[in-house]
Amino acid sequence: MTHEEAALRVRELTAELLRMAHEYYDLDAPTAEDYEYDMKMAELRELEAAFPDLLEPDSPTQRVQGTASGKFEKVAHTVQMASLQDVFSFEQVAAFVERVSAEVDAPMFTVEPKIDGLSVSLEYENGILTRGSTRGDGFVGENVTANLKTIRSIPLKLKGAPEKLEVRGEVYMPRASFERLSAQQEAAGEELFKNPRNAAAGSLRQKDPKVTAARRLDIFVFNLQQVEGESFAAHSETIDRMKALGFPTIPYAKCPADPEMIRAEIEKIGEMRGALPYDIDGVVIKTDSLSQRDRLGATAKYPKWAVAYKFPPEEKLTKLRAIEIQVGRTGVLTPVAVFDEIQLAGTSVSRAVLHNQQFITEKDIRVGDMIRVRKAGDIIPEVLASESHEPESVPYHIPDRCPVCGSTVERDGEEAALRCFNPACPAQIFRAIVHFASKNAMNIDGLGPAIVQQLLDAKLIETPADLYTLTKENLLTLEGFKEKSAENLLTAIENSKSQPLDRVIAALGIRNIGQAAATLLCDSFGSLDAIRNAKPEEIAQIDGFGEIMAESVAETFARPDFAALIDTLLARGVKMEYAAKTAASDRFAGMTFVLTGTLPTMKRDDAKALIESHGGKVSGSVSKKTSVVVAGDDAGSKLTKAESLGIPVIDEAELLRRCSE
Fold first, then answer.
1. Which fold has domain 315-419?
2. Exposed, middle or buried: residue 91 (CB in 10 Å: 0-12, 13-18, 19+)?
């Protein structure tokens, strides 16, 4: 690889890693697998080692990822909460042990499970918990004391404690708590957390401590950050002391500098992984002697006396018992593998989406096969391969009729999916109503999938419009409903009548039209009548629309059944009004902005709203049509592309100055 190629790849990896870290640490909403992140970090580290001049002080390899959000008071950590260097093979663990052994005499090591949660600091004065904070970027975190006090395993008062004490722990959500929360969210029609780690992080950052308390979080304490009046020779001694004080401490084993013994401990923890009541994503190996740690030192990001061995994505073999066909809101037939239950990443798994016929054919998946399954990113079950066929097995083909309504299914244009085009299909009606009521659509609180199915089974509703005819008497005939719950649901349904037109259009589930597209549609035409009468070529003129989206809108509004649904919703009180946001000025009219990096004082959504209030548009990618790029800290590939195209780049201060002109 040439220096120029390496420099380009370093920029690409840096931008990708910063984005992934922001989604994981700050938004609690990762879109990439942990394994993918780890591999990209390892590649960046290798490139920086091969081309030292490409190593920047603010590289992701040199910094703890994560920032303190604006929701909580910021806390400056007296002792840095550093992260650990990841390793992915036993050879790398052995190399770490050998390196430490070459620098200090006869080191001992502790081997501990790596809890998959959110790192926090707990500070005590005279035995009283005075402050608890998140790690943040390692130097500055968030004050979440009130929320941490709701975790019952955290002692609020210590007996026989030193005058001043700070410990570090990992807050996590036990699997039982996660399953309970997921069931509650699904019943309420809310978006589910992807895994226990994200659930723990989201729960600890709640503004209302009562919400945190209800989530039933727990903690393991694994490090003594600072202490007054006591001294220790080894990390293992500090763990024992913290346990004696009443903290729930991390279990550990002690090993000499023998890579094989350490490997055996790692494998032992790995074998226990599925049986534990909480998630672990690796094993931490630490030098035990505190004086030896001082001699070994640290880099700007990592201590040199510890590494974290990360487990590879867990895969298991199981028997495929059946392939079921699910019919979605738009009629798409989705095959789902049903297999013997297995434990993956701490949860029971027995189903996985097979996507489409092409996916099944390419992997030659047949009923009765032994299949290899994993959880992508420890979140979503996926079938990796078919390992063996049964004798006399035959290739699987998705049926040519809808399994719910019996209608003939067809391929829609060039799409890989097959679709049922019967608008009266019960499966489509069910999913359409669930979508209509969901949080990001009409936001009818309490109307989840289970209740929608109850209403359909009781023949109380047939379309979304029928929700507005429900009465308390209707609801009280359903199992589980009492006076108060019936009243609450009816109130939520009544409140939804005031949702603006763009939310209603998004709720009605027009193919290819989500919330953002619905808002653009309403911004351009301003009213329901104007949208109803718009021609495809007029809709296609909207910046951000294409011919397919325009045709989808025009064809849907022209359908008699859809027109009748709209009229019925209007007759039943759904307002469908739209008030376009009034621009503060038109100084950015005709200009397209791109935001990149972290701005000093503004969230990205706030900056976007500010630009739009002055007539500008915000795009997610840099092109020749981009007018200005607003760059903050950790700006990545977008900034590089803007500079190569000669596009003006400004900072937040300049943006605010231009808005105030």
1. OB fold (Dihydrolipoamide Acetyltransferase, E2P) (2.40.50)
2. exposed
Please write the tens of the pLDDT for every residue from 325-347. Answer: 999 888 889 999 999 998 776 56
| Greater pLDDT, 637 or 427 | 427
| CATH fold for domain 426-571 | DNA polymerase; domain 1 (1.10.150)
Could you tell me the two tokens for 219?
A: 């903690």
* Whether 114 is catalytic: yes
Same fold, 315-419 and 426-571: no
Per-residue pLDDT of 264-283, as tens digits, reads 999 999 888 878 889 898 99
Say what the pTM is: 0.52
- Alpha-carbon distances of 280 from 65, 268, 447, 510, 531, rounded to whole Å: 20, 13, 35, 41, 52
CATH of domain 592-659: 3.40.50.10190
Instruction: Give the residue among 429, 430, 371, 360 at the shortest CA–CA distance from 395.
Output: 360
Mean pLDDT of 172-198: 79
Highest mean pLDDT among 1-15, 373-387, 399-413: 399-413
Phi/psi of residue 381, nearest 5 degrees:
-65, 140
State how far the Cα of 292 lies from the Cα of 102, in Å rounded to an integer: 12
> Which H or E element spans position 74?
strand 74-76
Q: What percent of the chain has pLDDT over 70?
A: 91
Q: What is the mean pLDDT of residues 623-631?
A: 89
Q: Region of 76 please: left (phi>0), alpha (psi -120 to 50) or beta.
A: beta
CA distances from residue 378 to 119, 198, 349, 372 in whole angstroms, order as listed: 19, 12, 11, 15
User: Which tokens hold the place of 251?
Assistant: 């279990």
> Closest Cα partner for 175 from 192, 202, 196?
196
Query: Which residue has tokens 């394994």?
Result: 35
**Length of the chain measured in residues:** 661
Which of 353-357's residues contact partners 24+ apart within 8 Å by CB, and which partners?
353/382, 354/323, 354/383, 355/416, 356/398, 356/416, 356/417, 356/418, 357/397, 357/398, 357/416, 357/418
Q: Could you tell me where the beta strands, DSSP code E, fall in 185-329? A: 218-227, 253-256, 280-287, 306-310, 315-327
Quote the mean pLDDT of the chain: 87
Q: How many CA atoms lie within 13 A of 361 on its CB side?
A: 6
Catalytic residue among 40, 74, 114, 497: 114
Rounded CA separation 509/512 (Å): 8
Q: Which residues contact 69 (CB under 8 A, 6 or more apart)?
A: 26, 142, 205
Boundaries of every domain in the chain: 3-54, 74-310, 315-419, 426-571, 592-659
End-to-end CA distance of the chain: 49
Note the CATH architecture for domain 3-54: Orthogonal Bundle (1.10)
3-class DSSP state for residue 469? Answer: helix
| Residues linked to residue 109 through DSSP beta bridges, in sequence order | 255, 287
Q: Which residues contact 82 (CB under 8 A, 6 or more apart)?
A: 64, 138, 298, 301, 302, 303
Fold designation for 74-310: D-amino Acid Aminotransferase; Chain A, domain 1 (3.30.470)
Task: Tell me the torsion sign for CA atoms 48, 49, 53, 56.
Answer: positive
Q: How far from the centroid of its chain's Cα atoms is residue 421's Cα?
A: 33
**Burial status of residue 357 (CB atoms within 10 A of its CB: 0-12, 13-18, 19 or more):** middle
